[in-house]
Amino acid sequence: MLTKIKISLTAFLLVFIFSACNDPVPTELINPDDELTEDNFELELLSPEPDEYVYANGYDSTGIVSPVPGFASLINISHVKNTFNNVTKYKSGGLAIFFDTTRAVRSPRGRVIGFSARILGRVSFNGDSAAVLPYRIKYFDRGIQRDTLLGFRHILYRESFSQIGYTFLPYGSNVDFKLDAFAGNKKLMIPVPDEIIGQVNVAGKPFQNNFRLDLTWNGKGRGRTEIIIGGVPTGRSEVFPILRLWTKDDGKFVIPKNILTRIPFDKFDKIVITFLRKNESYKNENSIGRVYITAQSIHNIIF
Q1: What pLDDT digit, counting tens, does each position of 85-100 carry?
Q2: DSSP strand E in the chain: where?
Q3: Total-model pTM
Q4: In sequence order, which residues have a C-beta less than 8 Å from that of residue 236 and are 6 or more positions away?
């Protein structure tokens, strides 16, 4: 299984380099005896399409990496910390999107890049009304970035340079979600997880034998922590997800060297390590279909 994961990782990175940079690279074989971490973990490769990818999906704010939803409705609560050069900016928000899965949005080449988003009524979180704002995505078509309006979404959002008051949907609490819909009301109670506080220790330099990324956080000793490795490609502004892994919520993880050596760090201006602690569930609701409900604490460390 580990060998299969490592081979897939190399294939993914080759595809990424071709698609993002158009620089040919040699095929690389993998030694199954490469050094591995002592921690057990699961790995998911977030592979883009070679010529088309929903690039600005905002995973660093929502924790959702899939550009095309596998559900009819999304209800999301996120507490986000962005740390760069030892300065942290805080934001919290509630998000609701109701898709019309019968109305797929396609690229000029016919590929599904999303679904139309519709307004079903008034949305509130703990009694505070969410604003109705455009829902747009960015994607690449034959190397050209395009911007497409899919419809509208409901957002309740606050941002601050201070920890005080930014979590208006408190950690460790239950948030009351309500949809006052034209066809009937919907109420849900959403449990919010405890805060996650991450730290990245960088040793050495990329592509050198002494390069290490040691991750630590305030582990809870139960459940799992999700970690996404991403970056900001040179000359662009959006964060690009490279891979995602899950490990025990024990507060420490060393990214294996056989993964680090195959990430093209030289193609990025910045690297982003995202720590996530989340509660998630699916529900089938008659009026809004299959709903993905997620509440999470996110800490993005940028370097």
Answers
A1: 989 999 999 999 999 9
A2: 41-45, 73-84, 87-106, 112-118, 121-125, 128-129, 131-141, 144-160, 174-181, 184-191, 198-203, 212-217, 224-233, 240-248, 252-254, 268-285, 289-302
A3: 0.82
A4: none
